[in-house]
Amino acid sequence: MKVVWLQSGGCGGCTLSWLGSEWGSLFATLRDASIEIVWHPSISEACADEALAILESCVDGSTPFDVLCIEGSLLRGPAGSGRFHVMAGTERPMIEWVRLLAARARHVVAMGSCAAFGGVTAAGINPTDACGLQYDGANPGGLLGSQFRAGAGLPVVNVSGCPTHPDWVTETLLALARGEMTDRELDDLARPRFYTDVLVHHGCNRNEFYEFKASAEKNGDQGCLMEHMGCKGTQAHADCNQRPWNGSGSCTSGGYACISCTEPAFEEPGHPFTRTPKIAGIPIGLPLDMPKAWFIALAALSKSATPARVRKNATTDHIIRWPRPAKKP
C-alpha cells in the first residue's frame, strides 16, 4: 500500500506524535505490512524539484498510490482561491493539490483534528477560511464536500486528535492495508471506532474521585477534574486512558483537564479550558452516557457517602491518607 502524506495548515504535531511511537521501529512495522511512504515532507529524502516531480506524477497517474493522508486544515482563503497557502515551488494552492490527489486515491485520511474538522487553525474569526477535508467544524462539507467518496468507497477517514495518538495513525494505516476498514468500522463522524467507541473517562486514574464526586479545586490537586477544572473526559471519544502515550501519559494522568480534542470545534469551548461553566452550581457539560437527572441525583448521594480518605486526598497534590487494612475477624 503506497501512501502520500501532505502537511497543510497546522503545526506538524501529528507527525511528531507518530514518529514518537515507542512500540518498536515504526518503519519496520510499516515495512512488514508492505506500507510504502511515497512522499512525506518530514521523513522523505526527496525535496524541492524532486519532490514536486513525485507529486506531479501522482496527480497525472503515472505514479499510482493508494492512500492520501492530509495533516493540517485546508486554507480556502482568500475568497475561495486557496492562495493563502501555495505549495512552495509551484503556483498551485494546496487545496488544489489535495483535490487532484484525492480524486486519484483509494482512501483519503485526515490525520488530526485540523484536517478532520478545521481544528485550532479554524478558531476565532478564521481569516484563512480554514476547514477540514469533509467537515467544517461539526458540519458536513469541508473542502471535498459531504458526498465525497474515495476510490474504495469510503468517506474521508477522520483520525482526529490534537495531536493524534501514534497508534491511531499506525493502526488506521494497517487496517486500510489489510482491507479491514469499512463503513462499519467508522463512527458517525467517520472516525475509526477502534479508539472512539470509548470515552476518555474510561480508564482514568481519577475515577475513584469521580465516583464520589470528590473534586480538585486547583491545579495540582488529585481529585476529579470535571466539576471545577473543565475536564471533558466524560464527553470525549478516545481511548487515551486505556492506551496512554508512551505507556504512561495522558492529559488527566498528568494533572490537566481533557479538552475533548478529538471532537469537532473543541478549540472554541466558549469558556477557559480549565474552568467548568455551571448553571445554578451544576456543570453544563455532563456525561454523555447517562441521563442528566440521574447524574445530578447520584452526585448528591455520592458526595454524602464520600469516604474521608477520598475527600482529603482530592484537594492535595499527593496521597495523605491510604485505604485501611482489612480488620482481622
- How do the SSEs run, as a string of H and E? EHHEHEEHEHEEEEHHHEEHH
**Classification by helices and strands:** alpha/beta
Low-pLDDT stretches: none
Can you give the helix content as a percent range? 25-40%
Question: In total, how many beta strands?
Answer: 11
CATH topology grouping of the largest domain:
Rossmann fold
Oligomeric grouping of the chains: single chain
Which overall shape is indicated by the principal axes computed on the Cα atoms? elongated
Q: Looking across the biggest beta sheet, what order are the strands in?
A: 2-1-3-5-9
Q: Which CATH first-tier class of the largest domain would you pick? A: Alpha Beta
- Alpha carbon gyration radius: 22 Å
User: Approximately how much beta-strand content do the residues carry?
Assistant: 5-15%
Biggest beta-sheet profile: 5 strands, parallel
CATH H level of the largest domain: which superfamily?
Answer: NADH:ubiquinone oxidoreductase-like, 20kDa subunit
How confident is the prediction overall: mean pLDDT?
94
Distance between the termini: 64 Å
Quickly count the helices. Answer: 10
CATH architecture of the largest domain: 3-Layer(aba) Sandwich
Count of domain modules: 2
